[in-house]
TrEMBL record:
One of its GO terms (molecular function) is glycosyltransferase activity. Its main location: Golgi. It is a multi-pass membrane protein. It is found in: Golgi apparatus membrane. PANTHER family: GLUCOMANNAN 4-BETA-MANNOSYLTRANSFERASE 9, XYLOGLUCAN GLYCOSYLTRANSFERASE 2-RELATED. It comes from Flagellimonas lutimaris. This is Glycosyltransferase. SUPFAM superfamilies: Nucleotide-diphospho-sugar transferases (SSF53448). The chain crosses the membrane at residues 6-32, 316-338, 344-368, 446-464, 470-487. The lineage of its organism: Bacteria, Pseudomonadati, Bacteroidota, Flavobacteriia, Flavobacteriales. Keywords: Cell wall biogenesis/degradation, Glycosyltransferase, Golgi apparatus, Membrane, Transferase, Transmembrane, Transmembrane helix. GO terms for biological process: cell wall organization.
Length: 494
């Protein structure tokens, strides 16, 4: 390997590490915000829902597409929502293309006959996908406030009573609640998804919202002021994460968001890796698309402070961290050989300490979010250590798949909105086998993921002849992560 190539590899490797370090510092700042946050919900002005004059009209939108397995559960649950029937409307925005349409129509008819104001709304085409369905429903919505739930969400009966009152503050455009997980302990895959989402819904959402930084409506389990949606330019389907897009446009227009960590809305996590892949791809590509679409507006905005701009840029770059992590992983083996070939470049490897420091920062940050939900006993801490390194390994294993998504987003390559199949999994006894919405195709990335598993096995072996074990733990986690993703993809097919 020539010295010039070595310097290029070092430069790219160091730049990626530096970006990861900045990201971890941003997370640390959010942790400080999170820990310093004093609940001020009691101080906020609220509607008195005991006074009929103060009860606003609410529309609940249920955007669905081929949800045979969870439709009955969803409609039964939404029918139990406690709110005056004269002030509540439910729109079932059904873009389905299968037989579930007939069953849904029948169930909606039955609920309508009980006195519930519920409509089954069908479109001629899926233009704009979920954003298009929400936008079309909005045109005829009676409510001043629009609550949105995906098909796998099960809000408590008093959900509207806990969220609607905060809209008395006329500057609030959105109230978002924390996601819960009804099948958290179903498998290793669901546990690590719950772990990552819990960090987002505690550390990130509270950490940003408590200081007035931009947060995002999470696509579901939240409620919008209809005026805010229109003022921000309405739903747009030009990114795969229409929720993040509209959130930033609304906050750039000075609308405030209210995040309620104490209001949990249970939902179902994907239990099969192909479903998790499609969800991860959509979220990560959509994040990159929104960076491309919105970052300049954030940077040049004259009405938001520098710190809010910094956190906004880092937020929009969230998914791009996978690209940085994958770059560091891929170049770590050449770096190992550079270190042992060019002795005079040894000082460069001090930069590796940035990655170790970043990992320690994230370990500390995620512990505080984990214990806020799971508890802080010694046993919980031991479980946390195991879960953190399992999560870290599997996240590394997803880094190729998610990096492809991020690159497509940054390069402007358009793709369809691929929904995440739902399973109606409530306990370990339930099975996903036979679900007709599952893809039977193997991901083309699997071949590369297998090759990367072998590549990092070689990285582990390289430590022996070079007598340099500094990167061995990293290569071990990469080997296990890519192995997990490869073998789960191979075996988890319907």
């Amino acid at each position: 390997m020539g010295l010039a190539i070595a310097y290029i590899i070092i430069a790219i490797y160091s730049f990626a590490l530096l970006l990861i370090f900045f990201y971890s510092l941003a997370q640390l700042n959010l942790l400080v915000n999170y820990l310093g946050y004093k609940k001020r919900n009691e101080e906020a002005p609220k509607f008195n829902l005991l006074d009929p004059k103060e009860i606003p009209f609410v529309t609940i939108q249920l955007p669905i597409y081929n949800e045979e397995y969870v439709m009955e559960r969803l409609l039964e649950n939404i029918a139990k929502i406690e709110y005056p029937k004269s002030k509540l409307e439910i729109q079932v925005l059904d873009d389905s293309t299968d037989d579930s349409v007939i069953e849904t129509a029948q169930r909606v008819k039955e609920l309508h006959e009980t006195g519930l104001d519920i409509q089954h709304i069908r479109r001629e085409n899926r233009k704009g996908f979920k954003a298009g369905a929400l936008k079309e429903g909005l045109e005829i919505a009676k409510g001043d406030f629009i609550a949105i739930f995906d098909a796998d969400f099960l809000p408590e009966a008093d959900w509207l009573k806990k969220t609607v009152p905060y809209f008395k503050d006329e500057e609030i455009g959105v109230v978002q609640t924390r996601w819960g997980h009804i099948n958290r302990d179903y498998s290793t895959l669901t546990r690590i998804q719950a772990f990552a989402l819990d960090a987002h819904f505690t550390l990130e959402q509270v950490g940003r919202n408590s200081k007035g930084h931009f947060i995002n409506f999470n696509g579901t389990a939240g409620i919008w002021r209809k005026e805010c949606i229109f003022d921000a330019g309405n739903w747009e389907g030009d990114t795969l994460t229409e929720d993040l897009d509209l959130s930033y446009r609304a906050q750039l227009k000075n609308w405030k968001f209210k995040y309620l960590e104490d209001v949990e809305t249970p939902a179902e996590l994907p239990v099969v890796i192909s479903a998790a892949r499609s969800q991860q791809f959509r979220w990560n590509k959509g994040g990159a698309e929104n960076f491309r679409k919105t970052v300049w507006s954030v940077i040049t905005s004259k009405n938001i402070p520098f710190k809010t701009k910094f956190h906004g840029v880092m937020h929009l770059l969230n998914s791009s961290m996978f690209l940085c992590v994958f770059t560091v992983a891929l170049l770590s083996i050449p770096m190992l050989y550079i270190k042992n070939t060019y002795g005079h470049l040894g000082w460069v490897f001090e930069v590796t300490s940035f990655f170790i420091l970043s990992t320690i920062i994230l370990f500390v940050c995620y512990w505080f979010t984990y214990k806020s939900i799971q508890g802080s006993s010694f046993d919980n801490f031991v479980d946390y250590i195991k879960l953190f390194f399992t999560f870290f390994s599997v996240a590394l294993g997803f880094s190729l798949h998610n990096s492809v998504a991020v690159l497509e987003g940054h390069l402007g390559k358009r793709s369809e909105f691929v929904r995440t199949p739902k399973f109606n999994i409530n306990s370990i006894k339930d099975t996903w086998k036979g679900n007709k919405y599952l893809t039977t195709k193997l991901s083309p990335n699997m071949i590369l993921e297998f090759a990367l598993m072998i590549y990092f096995l070689f990285g582990m072996y390289s430590a022996i002849p070079l007598n340099d074990y500094g990167l061995f733990p990293f290569h071990l986690m990469l080997f296990l992560g890519f192995g997990f993703v490869f073998f789960k993809s191979l075996t988890s097919k319907a």
